[in-house]
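Action item from last week, closing it out:
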Amino acid sequence: MATPQIHKEAWKKSSYSAANGDCIEVARPSDEVIAVRDSKDPKGPILSFTKESWASFVAAAQQGAFPAA
């Protein structure tokens, strides 16, 4: 899936993010696409998800499907 151009103001980092830099940023460049990137590497790769697959991931994370290592 191609990710549309995203302006730097569109990226959001969680208010729960720690100061250690281990964060992701999320943007919504269109109604159908959720974009995710590593906040330490803003010029690095961007992952793109449909809104449905992103909602499934978030729901699974909230239910503890991905325990911290």
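Closing note: Helices lie at 51-62.
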